[in-house]
Design a protein that fits this description.
The chain has one domain (41-230): outer membrane lipoprotein receptor (LolB), chain A, CATH 2.50.20. Helix content is 25%, strand content 43%. The chain is α+β, with helices and mostly antiparallel strands and 231 residues long. A hairpin with a 4-residue loop joins strand 5 and strand 6.
Length: 231
Amino acid sequence: MKFSFFRKRFVFAAFSLGVVFLLSGLVSAQGVKQEILDRMDGNYKSLTSLKADVKMDKTDANLGVTDSRFGSVNFLPKSNKHPMYVRIDWKKPNESMVGIDKRYQIYRPEINQVIQGSTDSAKSSNKAGNALSFLSMSRRELMDNYDIKYVGQEDIPGGIATWHLFMTPKGKASYKSADLWVDKDGMPRQARVTELNNDTTVILLTNIQKNPTIKADIFKLDTKGAKVVEG
């Protein structure tokens, strides 16, 4: 009887200790998440422009095939004065994409064609704009629009130490979820957008230049004489 009594006390104590450690872990993770969001908010408030090299990996979930592209990006975050501006110039294939707010144009000089339309319904390389849009979101916008979970610390290509966040839209969206990898300064360095059909687009930024001078005319594509196709 005494052995049974002490065994019950031991089990109860172990269970209680486990609960304490679990709650401690949850509080710790919550604190880390808030710290990340604070740093992201600081980066958002101080970011006026950005230039970087960009890599995009787009994976077809059904075929298991990944298409990789490399290029450069010029970016102006959304502000009180203007919407978000983004231009990406891909090397192979030779292609330029400009997104302004929720409209985009893709110019393919080799066939002298322009594809244009809304980013919400787009199915091509302008999906990179969706991933970059997180640079234009304040902490309040992120918390209002997404359920955010802290995943852990991870190194991304290039050996950059980051925090990994997993986000699911609270309302209707053109994609299922998004993952962000954020550096110590609150800069999103990598983003993965998972579409409703489970296709994924991963955007990796390297050689980042923060707040360089970017002229507005860079966001105007020279498409004179090109065939226009609605996307």
